[in-house]
Amino acid sequence: MVFGGGDGDGTGCALSGRDAAMDAALGALYDGGGAGGAGGSRKASGARSAGLGGSAPHVARWLGDIRMYFPGSVVQVMQRDAIERLGLSALLLEPEMLEAVEPDVHLVGTLLSLNKAMPDTTKETARAVVRKVVEQLEERLAARTRATLTGALDRSARTSRPRHHDIDWNRTIRANLKNYLPEHGTVVPERLIGYGRAAQSVKKEVILCIDQSGSMAASVVYASVFGAVLASMRSIATRLVVFDTSVVDLTDQLDDPVDVLFGTQLGGGTDINRALAHCQSKITRPADTVVVLISDLYEGGIRNEMLGRVAAMKAAGVEFVTLLALSDEGAPAYDREHAAALAALGAPAFACTPDLFPEVMAAALEKRPLPVS
What is the C-alpha end-to-end distance of the chain, expressed in Å? Predict the structure, then answer.
């Protein structure tokens, strides 16, 4: 199928009906005349107009059109292109447009960056859009994360001298099958496997330290969702800290990731050293603590102090994980010098997809090599 229309498309065919409507929706976004985000464009023939205009109702109608004609994955790409190519950020502040939009992680990032400028009439609609995305992410990620981390915690807490009520009989029997006595029809266990009496208490502490500079928008969304999932596990004490040049501790809002997200302020500078100082002050059990720094490492603070804090935490027994991004966006831009310095301290920095994050956390909790891709 060829879209385009007009004398210059080279096909000699005119579009009509649904094809013409699809072409008009594409032209409104991608025709050269509409790229400035102004009032649209019109070809010399006058046969077809393009551009999304300057009003939210016009944009909302266009959003309805593309959802009718294109699959969801294409709609999300077109929405992102519209925001970037046509300067539509201001129109995201209009409730009627938000109600028409197809929510995704990138749209949430845009809404968060506009949070402080959002009028009261739009905020509830924006929260509904963000909540829809958060619920979709939780449905996709939560169960697998809990299962993976519960297994890691169980393995890390396993003991060969359990009390009677804490014996894991299935594993104990498997480990002692060689001691089966057929004449008695039983297994004589030489080695017991089980868990300590504190199985339901906090076993590990996790601190998520998230860079909220504008380039980290998708990572902030995913990290907030994972933070809420971790906080729901009784055996993990979770703290969530966001930072730019200041530091905000959002741990008390972890029961609702939407509250966490609206507590962030995307944009601004970066002071990793200050954020790590706050995290370091909250560590009470270094050997049982995992610190996850999510940042592109473009440090605006004191570099040597930042590296010194990481070295001190690792020397105390903290597991330190550096994620350059937590998203599906591909290879991120990052400060290679700082990444190399962290790697030299035994804290390799790497990008991580949301689907890989549970395995990364499981490895950190068990103090085994990270699945660095």
Answer: 39
For residues 27 and 69, is the Cβ–Cβ distance under 8 A? no
Residue with tokens 């579009």: 15
Q: By the 8 A CB rule, do 34 and 86 touch?
A: yes
Contact 194, 162 (CB under 8 A): yes
Euclidean distance between CA atoms 341 and 119, whole angstroms: 44
* Strand blocks (E) in 79-151: none
Burial (Cβ within 10 Å: 0-12, 13-18, ≥19) of residue 44 = exposed
Give the separation between CA 366 and CA 154, rounded to whole angstroms: 10
User: Environment class of residue 6 by beta-carbon count within 10 Å: exposed (0-12), middle (13-18) or buried (19+)?
Assistant: middle
Alpha-carbon span 46 to 43, nearest angstrom: 5
Q: How far is CA 300 from CA 211, 213, 244, 296, 306, in A?
A: 12, 11, 9, 12, 10
Which one-letter amino acid corresponds to residue 265? Q
Structure tokens at 174: 């498997």
DSSP code, position 167: B
Q: Are 153 and 238 in contact (CB under 8 A)?
A: no
- pLDDT, one tens digit per residue, over 319-347 is 999 999 999 888 899 999 999 999 999 99
CB atoms within 10 A of CB 197: 11
pTM assigned to the model: 0.75
What is the full DSSP assignment across 33-67? Answer: GGTTSSS-EE-TTSS-EE---S-HHHHHHHHHHHH
> Are the beta carbons of 20 and 5 closer than 8 angstroms?
yes
Q: Around Cβ 108, how many Cβ atoms within 10 Å?
A: 25
The rounded distance, in Å, linking the Cα atoms of 106 and 85 is: 15
The contacts of residue 219 (CB under 8 Å, 6+ apart) are 210, 211, 294, 323, 325, 326, 327
User: pLDDT digits over 277-300, tens only?
Assistant: 999 999 999 999 999 999 999 988
Residues 6+ apart with CB under 8 A from 328: 218, 353, 354
Cα separation, 91 vs 223, whole angstroms:
27
